[in-house]
Structures are given as C-alpha cells and as structure tokens.
Design brief:
This protein is α+β, with helices and mostly antiparallel strands and 215 residues long. Helix content is 23%, strand content 33%. The strands form three sheets. A four-stranded antiparallel sheet has the order 4-7-5-6. It has a three-stranded antiparallel sheet with strand order 1-2-3. It has a three-stranded antiparallel sheet with strand order 8-9-10, with no helix packed on it. The structure holds zinc ion (ZN) (2 copies).
Length: 215
C-alpha cells in the first residue's frame, strides 16, 4: 500500500493481504489469514482488520482424469476455481480461471500432453475472485477494520482505538489459580498511546482450562 500511496501522492492507503498455511493448532487443515490495513499518514496511524478461518487450499499431481475429477469435487469445483499446470507445481505453463467441467477436462488433457511425466498438477485457485471461502474471509477482515475505525480514542478522538494485547490469568472456578484464559483486553490508541485495560465480563474460567485441576 505504501508504494501505491507514494505514486499517487496520497496520505491515505488501504491494503489487503492474505496468507495460507497449515493450521498451527491441529495441522489438519489449511488456514487462511486475511488482513485489511488502513494507513493514514496525516494522523500517523495504521489500523488493521484481521480475520482467519479454514480454507480449501490443496493440490494434487494427477495421473488420470478420475483422480483429477475426484480432487475437483472435493475442492467444491466449479464454485471454487482450479489452476492446472503440466508436470509439477513450479511449471510456468499454467491455465487459470477454469470455472466449468468442460474447460477443466480440456486443461487436464492439455497439461498431461505437455508434461514429460504425463501428469497434470492441479491446485485450488486462491485468488479471491475465484475462491468464495477466501472472499468471505476478506469481507470479514473488512468488517473488523470498519468496526475498529468506528471506535474513536476517548482522549484524542482518532479512529482505531483497538485491542492490542490480551492479559491472561482468569481465575479457575474451582481452585482460583490463574489460567491462560483472557482476564482483560488492553485497548490502545495508535496515535496518542492512551490505553485502558477492560476486564472481560466472565469472572472465572472453566476448571477444564486450569493447569492445576486439569493438567
Ligand atoms: Zn488517542
Ligand atoms: Zn483450578
């Protein structure tokens, strides 16, 4: 966003960025994190909207049409786009924007014909306009950003008074010892640095989250 702002000589910028990777907790499915950043150089602030959720990020090196078809069905094709390449994932020959079975079949056989190993590499199209799951995540990040921008600092009135830190230590309901559950959130102004710690409404954590009662 900063490069675009410099070119256009604007003090305001909006940038969106997405990343994909294995879910850090289970590793079982792929996680998509979308960020929407609002940059205001006049006020000297950056406000970040974030959303994360499951995604259908996946790929397959297919040797025959049956494999390719099964992969496409599992990836919710044709609602979600698929990208096809000959040989392997780094081949520069690529077909994108495939959105119907006829084109997918045609692209698959084209790729197999081009490939010296006779195989086609298929992957889910993660570009937002070809991927409804990602589009929904981008929308969620935008809503998060809008919500933060609507919340002004109580001291200097700058938009983007937001949660920057969580304080753990919510006491266990049985033994009263601090757990890793969030006790309070710290909201901070990106401009004047004013901050407040707001206690969470819940006063105790379930014993199941306690290292003493349930190690
Ligand atoms: Zn402030
Ligand atoms: Zn306990």
């Amino acid at each position: 966003a900063r490069i675009g702002m410099k070119l256009a000589n604007l003090p305001l910028g909006l940038a969106s960025e997405g990343s994909f990777g294995p879910d850090p907790f289970t590793g079982l499915f792929s996680l998509n994190i979308e960020m929407m950043v609002w940059i205001d150089d006049t006020l000297g602030i950056e406000v970040v909207g974030v959303a994360s959720g499951r995604t259908n990020f996946s790929h397959l090196l297919a040797a025959n049409w049956e494999q390719a078809e099964a992969f496409a069905r599992a990836a919710d094709f044709p609602e979600h786009g698929i990208v096809v390449r000959p040989r392997h994932e780094d081949d520069s020959r690529v077909r994108k924007g495939i959105a119907d079975w006829e084109s997918l079949r045609e692209a698959f056989f084209w790729a197999c014909g081009e490939a010296d190993n006779g195989r086609a590499f298929l992957e889910t199209d993660m570009r937002a306009h070809m991927n409804p799951m990602r589009m929904e995540m981008v929308a969620q990040a935008s809503r998060d950003l809008a919500h933060k921008l609507r919340t002004p600092c109580p001291i200097c009135n700058t938009p983007g008074f937001q949660i920057v830190e969580r304080i753990p230590g919510l006491p266990c309901e049985d033994c009263d010892s601090p757990t890793r559950d969030t006790r309070a959130d710290i909201h901070r102004c990106a401009r004047c640095g004013h901050q407040v710690a707001l206690e969470r409404p819940e006063k105790t954590a379930p014993a199941g989250h306690c290292d003493w009662c349930n190690p």
